[in-house]
Amino acid sequence: MLAGQAQKEFFVNEALSLLDALHARAVTASQAAPPASPLDGACYRVTATATGAWVGQEGKLAVRIAGAWHFIPPADGMVIYDRAVGALVIFRTQWQPAAVVAAASGGTVIDVQARNTLTALITALKTMGVLA
To answer: 53-92 b/e with 16+ CB inside 10 Å = b?
Structure first.
C-alpha cells in the first residue's frame, strides 16, 4: 500500500479474502463454467473449455470476492484438494490428478501382478509429489 492511497481498506480486504480462500488449498470443484449462484469466498479450479465469466482463465483458480471473480495462476508444485471428487490435484506445468490404481486380480503368477500394482502405486505417489 502507498501512503495516501485511496480505498486502502478495499485492497486489504481483497488480499485477506484471497488468503482466506487459498489458505485451505481446497476448491469446491473443478469445472469449466461458473456456478449459477456462487457464494463469496467460493474457490474453483477452472477447467477447459471455460465459459461465461471464466473464458480464457483455464487452469487458474477462481475465487469469488465481493461479487466478482478473481483469478489466481497456479505455481509449480501447488497441491489442492478438490472437494467434489475427494482427491488431490497437483500443478506441474498443468493440473495433474492422481492416477487411479486398480487392484491386482486374476492371473496365475501373483508376483507379476504385485509388481505391476506396486509400480502403479509408486507412479501415482510420484505424480502427487509424495515421492520424488
So the answer is: ebeebebbbbbbbeeebbeeebeeebebebeeeeebbbbe
Neighbours of 41 (CB within 10 A): 12
Residue 111's domain spans which residues? 98-127
Asked if residue 63 belongs to a domain, the reply is yes
Are 69 and 103 members of one domain? Answer: no
Q: How far apart are the first and last CA of the chain?
A: 39
Distance, CA of 13 to CA of 1 (rounded, Å): 12
Please identify which residue in the block is written with the cell numbers 488431490: 88
pLDDT tens digits, 102-119: 766 777 777 888 888 888
Tell me, yes or no, whether 12 and 73 share the same domain.
Answer: yes
Rounded CA gap, 93 and 85, in Å? 22
